[in-house]
Amino acid sequence: MKRFAFLALIFAGVCWGVGFPMGKLALKEIDAAHMVLLRFGVAAICALPFALRSPATRGLFRSPPVLLAGLLYGVAFLVQFEGLARTSVTLAALLVGAMPALIAVAARLFGEPVSRTSWIGVVGATLGAALIAGKPGAAGTPLGVSLCLGALPIFLAWLFVSRRAPTADPNDPAAPMPAMAVPAATIIIAALTILPIALAMHGAPRLRLSPAAWAGIAGQGVFSTLLATAAWQYGLARVGTASAGVFINIEPLMGAAIGAALFGDRITVAMGLGGLLIIVGSTVVVLGERGLSTPLSPPLLVDGPAS
User: Fold this and answer.
1) Secondary structure class of 98 (helix, strand, coil)
2) Model's pTM, two decimal places?
3) Got the DSSP string for 176-199?
4) Which residue in 51, 89, 115, 194 has a CA-CA distance of 20 to 30 Å to 259?
């Protein structure tokens, strides 16, 4: 079971990683808030069949944990991308790379067991992300840095609130909730949260974009939002929070690899060593997770081998 969970977490990290080059295509023609709005709009349209398929799934829109998770998710992406628009990629990637350590600390504070081996893996993978990101002295406004930092605790809150989402039909506790139901409802609520904020900030988005920009937005919506969220929540439900968090470091690793392959970025010694640390650290976390014999928290999703 955990093998599929770790594969799902890797898949989520890859999807979030490829969101960077797809986002670059769109950001050439549209501002960050509108890009996030359109990205979640695409994801919400794709999510509708999963969220509306039955009375149980429709009931998720009345569930306080799901409503709060969707609100947090939408706000977190808005804050993060507004910050990214005001900082360099190097500095922003370094801040994102610190997220697994923050998750591990929070998991311990919330009473989840984190093995010593897993802690070693978290530290190693986080150092790898820092090496890939480079020196933190790159250009960035104080507001941009504050926004990027501010997004991290919001994402952290979303992660823990998501664990409280219903796992079964309230009218039939023996019937598990469909695997895609909670991620779909979360994304739709996030899109509805983003809509008024983006409109208040920048007005209506410009829709006359190039095919390349729309391809970037659609790719982010399907892969970096819908599929990444579903895969992440599937994996998170079956392993410890700290163990899942380390796989966020795949995102800067993917960013470096894609930057070299598609944008001509030079692979440095730091990038190579950082990638090795991420791979080794993730492997160590998996080994540490195997040493924990009891579930770490109530599962978020309970049916199906994949999301």
Assistant:
1) coil
2) 0.80
3) EPPTTHHHHHHHHHHHHHHHHHHH
4) 194
